[in-house]
Amino acid sequence: MDYYRRLNVRRAIMDFARASKGSGERECAFYNARTKGIQRHLSEHPIVLDSAAAFDRALASRATAFYCSYWRYPGQDFSRALGHDLVWTVRARRGGLRFARTVTASVIEALADGGVSEPWVKYSGRLGFDLLISLEAIPNEAWAGDGDALADLQGRLTSYIVSYLVERWSNIHIDGASSPLKIKRGTDTCLLSELRARRGLLLAPMSLNPESGLVSVPIAPDEVAEFSVLDASPADARAFEWVQPSRVARELVKYARPWQLAPVQTKLAIA
Q: I need a surface site. Which of 64, 132, 171, 202 has the fewest CB within 10 A?
């Protein structure tokens, strides 16, 4: 497929797949156009997009979309997780991409107000957006390597996002006490969901969406409100480069539960 021959496309996908800074590797997968399903293995080996040759092998096997896990693993041992990025999705049920843009922009504002000024944001390729706080941006003292503490941190951030939206939107209604949350304004509706499933996959930045054929293009956080699907056409899509955060978001410590972290810190001190 000519689109995936473009160097900027390959770079965006492979840079995300490789992760960095010793924080583990991402499991990869692709959508197989022949079988019309997600494929995680080639010749019985897990798919890891760590080279141009690996990319070409996937294309030769009829890959038309690429996925990466938001979990990190030691090498290719996908039975043991090191941690995961914090990922939220915004998907429009009614109101289309217009309402999804509005909600996503407000979630980005909430994260900035809460201390996260550099989230990664991308268009889903359909009626929504994906937001990520990379594992490297999360201070160790906020979760201390404990997956349950990391999940709790995300849940508390979601609660903060909800309170931020309620305070600033006079005509908003939010259904649900936990993810997924249904955000309504008049007849417009979006779902705000946390992604946590072990070995969970996310459409890679700059991959084509297998249903729409549009590009899951990364976007600068402050440009979401102006985003158009024209920016996601395969011929014209240009990625906003995702780089590792310039600083750890120390403010995230305030969303951690001290009673939950204390036992973990004690075990680490003993070790």
A: 171
